[in-house]
Amino acid sequence: MAGAPGERGPGPAAGEQLQQQHVGCQVFPERLAQGKPQQGFLSSFFTNNQKCQLMLLQTLETSRSHPYVKLLLDAMKHSGCAVNKERHFSCEDCNGNVSGGFDASVSQIVLCQNNICNQAHMNRVVTHELIHAFDHCRAHVDWFTNVRHLACSEVRAANLSGDCSLLNEILRLHFGLKQHHQTCVRDRAIRSILAVRNISKEVAQKAVDEVFESCFNDHEPFGRIPHNKTYARYAHRDFQNRDRYYSNI
C-alpha cells in the first residue's frame, strides 16, 4: 500500500481519496472511510490482536535483534518522519493471505493479525512496510495512479527487507538458481503489486521490468543489500557514522 508517518501537507483530492479508500477496503476491510480501523474497546483482548501487539512491541523495542527495523526507524526520524507506535501501526484482520500494508490515506502501517504467524514473520513485515514509509517520506510517490512508482518501492522492499534472504528462500524450497536473489525480488514485487491492485499480471510485470535496474540498485538507507542481520548491523553502524562524517566536513 502507500502512505508515510509524519505531516506531508494537504491531503489528496476527492477523486484520489475515493480510489485510495476503494483499494484499502479490498484488502483491509476494517478500514473506515475516515481512515481509522474499526476497533472496539475489547479488541485488544482478542487473541490475534493481543499477539500482534506484543510481537510489534518486541520488533520495535529489541533493536539489536532487529537491526533492519532499528536502521529504518533512525532513518525515518533523520528525514523528519519520526514513527510513533500508537499512531502509525494498526493490528487488524485482512482479506486473503496479505501480511501487511501501507495505508497512504491515513499514514498507517497495517499489520494483518490474522495472517502474521510468528515473531520472525512480524519482523519481516514491519521492515517491508517501513521501507515503503521511508520511500514516501523522501520522495513524492504517486502510489495510487502510477503503478511504476508502486513497482519501484515494492522492488526496494523485497530487495532490502530480507524477504529474499537465502534462509527464507531455502524455507520456501527456492534455491540454486543463477542470480536467484534478483529473480526472487522481481517475483515478490510482482506478487505484492497484484495483491493490492486490480491489474493484470502482464501490466505488473511490465511495470517491474521498467524500473527494476534503477530501483534494485537503490539501497537507501542501508547503503548495501543487507542479506542478513550481520549486514544490517554493519549498515546501521555506517548510517550512524555518516552523520558524524558530514558534521566534520
Task: Output mean pLDDT.
Answer: 81
Quickly name the level 1 CATH class of the largest domain.
Alpha Beta
Cross-sheet strand order for the largest sheet? 1-3-2
Distance between the termini: 39 Å
Largest sheet: 3 strands, mixed
Q: For the CA atoms, what is the radius of gyration?
A: 17 Å
Shape: globular
Instruction: Write the CATH architecture name of the largest domain.
Output: 2-Layer Sandwich
The fold-level CATH name of the largest domain is Zincin-like
Portion of residues within helices: 55-70%
Strand count: 3
Order of helices and strands: HHHHEEEHHHHHH
Going by helix content, strand content and strand pairing, the class is mainly alpha
Strand content: 5-15%
SS summary, helix count: 10
Q: Tell me the count of domains.
A: 2
Low-confidence runs: 1-18, 40-44
Short description:
This protein is mainly alpha-helical and 249 residues long. Helix content is 55%, strand content 5%.
Question: How does this model look, in words?
Answer:
The protein is built from 10 helices and 3 strands, in the order ααααβββαααααα. The protein has helices spanning 14-27, 47-61, 67-78, 85-88, 119-138, 147-160, 166-171, 180-196, 201-216, 229-247; strands at 89-92, 100-103, 108-112. By secondary structure, it is mainly α. It has 2 domains: 47-140, Zincin-like, CATH 3.30.2010; 142-227, no CATH class. The chain starts with 13 loop residues before the first helix and ends with a helix. It holds the Pfam family Peptidase_M76. Belongs to the peptidase M76 family. This is Mitochondrial inner membrane protease ATP23.
